[in-house]
């Protein structure tokens, strides 16, 4: 099964017209307005948490299809421009919609995870992704379980790659996380557990030891 085939199951959550637009973008990108496609995907990602976790793969497939067909990057440029627009108003987004903010962070981390230039993550996304994770590590965010959960999930997903791109910023991020874990009053038990788990996960070389897996995941399931 090709990339386009693998993506079709994700398209079912859209209306019929948008489904057709996305299917065409995957199979014949030159036949559709790819900037419109980029906006459709970002809009849906900000509203649908499940889709925001997986949209990077669809974006990667469209980029590959466009490059193969025409040697162009209209879709990638449109996607990055829209991500930049949302990034610049991220505080307003967070104030307006916690779900939209968490979806945005999930989406930009997912794009960072999938998009490559010469088999390397895109440098243009490194600092925006870090800035989002730094925002999630601020005291007011650490008191929101939804944001703590997002922070930890994204660090599991892209933390090791981010550290390779800029180790100093990762050190600074984990100072915030450790300070939050040790010094903040009022953290929920789940938030404390998640923060301790990610601290130990990084300390172990971005791996979960068998003992840690048994401890944390039995605690979460309880």
Structure description:
Helices cover 78% and strands 2% of the residues. The protein has helices at 3-7, 16-27, 34-45, 49-70, 74-88, 90-96, 98-114, 123-136, 139-142, 145-165, 167-183, 189-203, 210-221; strands spanning 116-117, 120-121. A two-stranded antiparallel sheet has the order 1-2. A hairpin with a 2-residue loop joins strand 1 and strand 2 (120-121). The protein is elongated, with a radius of gyration of 18 Å.
Number of helices: 13
* CA-based gyration radius: 18 Å
Major sheet: order of its strands? 1-2
Question: What level of helicity do the residues show?
Answer: over 70%
By oligomeric state, this entry counts as: single chain
Largest sheet: 2 strands, antiparallel
Written as H for each helix and E for each strand, in order along the chain, the element string is HHHHHHHEEHHHHHH
How big a fraction of the residues is strand? under 5%
Low-confidence stretches: none
Distance between the termini: 39 Å
Query: Count of DSSP E strands?
Result: 2
| Structural class assignment | mainly alpha
Please state the average pLDDT score.
91
What is the overall silhouette? elongated
What is the gist of this entry?
With 222 residues, this protein is an all-alpha fold.
Give descriptors for this structure:
nucleus, 13 helices, translation regulation, 222 residues, mainly alpha, mRNA_TranslReg/HistoneTransl, two-stranded antiparallel sheet
Topology record:
Elements: H1 3-7, H2 16-27, H3 34-45, H4 49-70, H5 74-88, H6 90-96, H7 98-114, E1 116-117, E2 120-121, H8 123-136, H9 139-142, H10 145-165, H11 167-183, H12 189-203, H13 210-221
Antiparallel strand pairs: 1-2
Helix pairs in contact: 3-4, 3-5, 4-5, 4-7, 6-7, 7-8, 7-10, 8-10, 10-11, 10-12, 11-12, 12-13
Protein name: MIF4G domain-containing protein
GO molecular function, one term: identical protein binding
Function: Functions in replication-dependent translation of histone mRNAs which differ from other eukaryotic mRNAs in that they do not end with a poly-A tail but a stem-loop. May participate in circularizing those mRNAs specifically enhancing their translation.
């Amino acid at each position: 099964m090709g990339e386009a085939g693998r993506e079709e199951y994700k398209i079912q959550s859209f209306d019929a017209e948008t489904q057709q637009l996305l299917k065409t973008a995957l199979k014949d990108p030159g036949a559709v307005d790819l900037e419109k496609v980029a906006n459709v995907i970002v809009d849906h990602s900000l509203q649908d948490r499940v889709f925001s976790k997986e949209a990077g793969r669809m974006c990667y497939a469209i980029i590959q299809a466009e490059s193969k067909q025409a040697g162009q990057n209209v879709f990638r440029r449109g996607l990055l421009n829209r991500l930049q627009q949302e990034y610049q108003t991220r505080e307003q987004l967070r104030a307006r919609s916690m779900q939209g903010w968490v979806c945005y962070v999930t989406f930009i981390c997912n794009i960072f995870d999938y998009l490559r230039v010469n088999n390397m993550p895109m440098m243009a996304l490194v600092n925006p992704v870090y800035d989002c994770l730094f925002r999630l590590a601020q005291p007011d965010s650490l008191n929101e379980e939804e944001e703590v959960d997002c922070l930890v999930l994204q660090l599991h997903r892209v933390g090791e790659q981010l550290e390779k791109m800029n180790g100093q910023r990762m050190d600074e991020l984990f100072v915030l996380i450790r300070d939050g874990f040790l010094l903040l009053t009022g953290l929920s038990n789940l938030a404390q557990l998640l923060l301790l788990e990610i601290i130990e996960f990084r300390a172990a070389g971005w791996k979960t030891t068998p003992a840690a897996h048994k401890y944390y995941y039995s605690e979460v399931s309880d």
